[in-house]
Amino acid sequence: MTHGGNIFEIQRNCNIDKNQLLDYSANINPLGVPQTFKKIMKESLEDIEHYPDIHYDALKTAIEKYYTIDKSHIYLGNGAAEIIFNTIRAIAPKKSILLAPTFSEYAKALNAVDSVIEEVHLKKEDEFSLDMEELIETIDTSTDLVVLCNPNNPTGTLIETKDIVKLLKKCHEKNTYLMIDEAFMDFIEEDKFYSMLHSYKLYPHLIIVRAFTKFYSIPGMRLGFGVCCNEGILKKIYKITPPWNLNTFASYFGKVLLTEEQYVKETYQWLKEEKSRFVTALEKIEGMKTFAPSVNFILIKILKPSMTVDELRDKLLKKGILIRDCSNFNGLDKSYFRIAIKDEASNDILIENLKIVMGK
């Protein structure tokens, strides 16, 4: 699989009922779809007879209020993927810098505009943390775009704002754009130390990507947004974005942002408690190295020379558990996989099955 969460492909190819799978390949909030949104969709079903607001004003207003950002700097997308592709199309970089490993769609979007990609490799011996000085030294006047994922997928590593500010200074000097994908940032309760959303107006070379998919458990809805104070880039993005790129239900999501405070609190509480418990249990399983997670997913390396991720994945699939093979991430090999953090009962099932499989 190119991505996690493709349970329909598993159902087709492996003859496994998707409803019987414990899907650990997609990093989705186990609290499920917020009740407010379920109610909105039921009550507004007949609204699909009409086009949604072409300007999505109510949604942008809610995003503006929730995140304390300027509505005129927000652009919407059919998931973060559309934001990423449209932003890169607008910038049209001839040369770009990516980390490795990181989310594969950046390279795909860059390849679509024939951008030359230079990789800065994250090292296992450094727990895949970014050497910011190395990245800064890589940027020169030929660099049009740098792409970061913060927290990084699949490593879960975080970059502090103080280091990003250093990077932005170099980007400004070299007239280089910096796009930061913060798709998982909503899971960080103390995000002021990591997110640039609070100070984006200071940096005209900065673009921030956000998604509601993971935190609010709505991957099927496809809803994300970008933030940028650069009017030139925004005009280019609007020029290439088709009208009505969000559906009616997505356009109503602003009501969820402004009403689901308890859902947010419960998510932070679940993650705080279950992440610690789950990681402790994983670390006790022999034959694996668990990398410390910052959000709701965990990168793991298989240490047994006789086992590959293909073998592990197949054995777990027979038990109805799907993990994310990470060997297609640049910089990772057939010994790496990624799992989500789910509810306690599901996590206990995975732990027990990993013990059995890794013990053989």
Key traits:
360 residues, alpha/beta, Aspartate Aminotransferase, domain 1, Aspartate Aminotransferase, domain 2, 2 domains, 7-stranded mixed sheet, 16% strand
CATH architecture of the largest domain: 3-Layer(aba) Sandwich
Number of folding domains?
2
Characterize the largest beta sheet: strand count, sense, and whether it forms a barrel: 7 strands, mixed
- CATH fold-type name of the largest domain: Aspartate Aminotransferase, domain 2
State the separation between the terminal residues, measured CA to CA. Answer: 25 Å
Q: How does the overall form come out from the CA principal axes? A: globular
Report the β-strand fraction as a percent range. 15-25%
Output the structural class: alpha/beta
Q: Would you report the number of β strands?
A: 13
Tell me the helix content. Answer: 25-40%
Radius of gyration: 20 Å
Largest sheet, order of strands side by side? 2-8-7-6-5-3-4
- The whole-number mean of residue pLDDT values reads 95
Which parts are unreliable, with pLDDT below 50 for 5 consecutive residues or more?
none
Description:
The chain has helices at about 5-15, 35-45, 55-65, 80-90, 105-110, 130-140, 160-175, 230-240, 250, 255, 260-285, 310-315, 345-360, and strands at about 20-25, 75, 95-100, 115-120, 145-150, 175-180, 205-210, 225, 290, 295-300, 320, 325, 335-340. It is of the alpha/beta class. It folds into two domains: about 5-35 and about 260-360, Aspartate Aminotransferase, domain 1; about 50-255, Aspartate Aminotransferase, domain 2, CATH 3.40.640. Strands 2-8-7-6-5-3-4 form a seven-stranded mixed beta sheet, with helices on both faces. A four-stranded antiparallel beta sheet has the order 9-10-13-12, with helices on one face. Strands 1-11 form a two-stranded parallel sheet. It is globular. The model has no long low-confidence stretch (mean pLDDT about 95).
